Amino acid sequence: MAGKVLAAEMREKVTLNHPIFSRWPAQYSDRLQLFSPPTPNGVKVGIMLEETGLAYEPHRIDIMFAGKAYEDKRPRDRYATESARLLGVLDERLAGRDWVMGADYSIAYISLLGWVRNLIGFYKARELVGFDRFLHVQAWLNRGRARPAVQHGLEVTAG
After folding, report:
1. Mind giving me the DSSP string for 3-39?
2. Residues 6+ apart with CB under 8 A from 57
3. Residue ranges per domain, the chain?
4. What per-residue confidence (pLDDT) applies to 133?
5. pTM for the full model?
6. Does residue 105 sit in helix, strand or coil?
7. Nearest alpha carbon to residue 90 among 106, 113, 107
8. CATH class as words, domain 74-148
9. Quick one: pLDDT band at residue 4, thresholds 50, 70, 90?
10. Is the dihedral of CA 150, 153, 158, 159 positive or negative?
11. Does domain 2-60 have CATH number 3.40.30.10?
């Protein structure tokens, strides 16, 4: 029992004294603190927390210093080509399936949703990767977006 009390006191001390809280103060120190940008990885954490029902407090972090102004488009083009290839693999996998792993919704969906959603939304690469040709991916994304936990998870992190 003494160990649990000490651990709780240490967690409280570390949580409340961390420098990040000077910018994003915690209102609920007993909850998980989600510091998340609206990136693919950021939204998947928000969705997972919603799906599991764990108590958390979201803090949206804005990191928008991304390299849109770079004249050299080779990195962007390489990313677009690889993204289109991966969307093709995902589209084939989803042929005849509702979810990535078959009939059941799983963490595999959550893992991919942030990337696919942000690719066409946050990064505005829908045309660049030819997203509209991936019909199975579009239907899969729409099925997932219809889930209340996904909707709320996206709200708290994606802004």
Report:
1. HHHHHHHHHHHHHHH-THHHHS--S-TTSEEEEE-SS
2. 26, 27, 28, 31, 32, 33, 34
3. 2-60, 74-148
4. 98
5. 0.72
6. coil
7. 113
8. mainly alpha
9. low
10. positive
11. yes
